[in-house]
Amino acid sequence: MKTPAPRGRWLALFALTLGVAASVVANVLHARHNLISQGISAWPPIALLLTVELMARVAVVRRLRAWVRITATTAVAGIAAWASYWHMAAVASTYGEVGPTVYLLPLSVDGLIVAASVTLIELGARIPVDLVRTQVDATPQTVEEKERAAAAALVDYLDAKGKKGHRDPVRELMRVGADKAGKLVAQAKSNGAT
Predict the structure, then answer these.
(1) I want to staple 123 with a disulfide (CB 3.0 to 4.6 A). Which of 4, 6, 56, 149 is the partner?
(2) Crossing angle for the helix pair 35-57 and 63-94, nearest 10 degrees?
(3) Minimal CA–CA distance to 24: which of 42, 36, 39?
(4) CB contact set of 108 (below 8 Å; sequence gap of 6+)
(5) Is the pLDDT of residue 15 over 80?
(6) In 3-state terms, the chain is what percent helix, strand and coil (to 5)?
(7) 77, 51 Cβ separation under 8 angstroms
(8) What DSSP state is assigned to residue 180?
(9) Are residues 16 and 77 in contact, defined by beta-carbon separation less than 8 angstroms?
(10) pTM beyond cutoff 0.85
(11) Helix/strand/coil for 6
């Protein structure tokens, strides 16, 4: 079963890609005119793009691992922002910008990257909830039928994400916002949803 993309994901991904591309271009323009220097300069914003995509697409299951991912992403973002800010300010100055614009222009790019990154991560967290709403609200049902459909949709979602046989499906369902998760999983399993 394919998970639908939340509304706005493509726009946020486009904004992030545009911001990263602007950062890569500025970093490469600021680097020495050899391939190794340009590759090194281009790396921080590309690493940021990849870490944000990982944060947005991979569900958090364990708190410690989530903390490690957030810490690593913050470190990559800080390095990319620092390097890119000064590279872009130097490039803006070299190509004729003067005064405060030299220092504000890089903030517009970094601000776009931050806004798009946070949006993607928020949208990624909503995928299970939106998936269940879409599947449950598709047909008019009784409350009990909706509960069973919600459980089946969440179990299908977990299976699609590779969590088949997950040690604690109740905890995972509670994390994505299902009420009465234990009862719903038991009903879904007894009805053959897994």
Answers:
(1) 6
(2) 140
(3) 42
(4) none
(5) yes
(6) 75, 0, 25
(7) yes
(8) T
(9) no
(10) no
(11) coil
192, burial (CB in 10 Å: exposed 0-12, middle 13-18, buried 19+): exposed
Average pLDDT over residues 29-35: 92
**What's the burial of 127, exposed, middle or buried (CB within 10 Å: 0-12/13-18/19+)?**
buried
Confidence grade of residue 194 (pLDDT, cut at 50, 70, 90): very low
Least confident of 33-47, 152-166, 176-190: 176-190
Give the position of tokens 């590759």. 39
Crossing angle of helices 101-136 and 143-160, in 10° steps, is: 130
The amino acid at 144: E
Separation CA 135–CA 105 (nearest Å)? 44
Residue written as token pair 């049902």: 141
Tens digit of pLDDT for each residue in 98-125? 999 999 999 999 889 889 988 887 877 6
Q: Which two tokens stand for residue 103?
A: 């220092």
Gap between the Cα atoms of 174 and 170, Å rounded = 6
How far is it, in rounded angstroms, from Cα 86 to Cα 90? 6
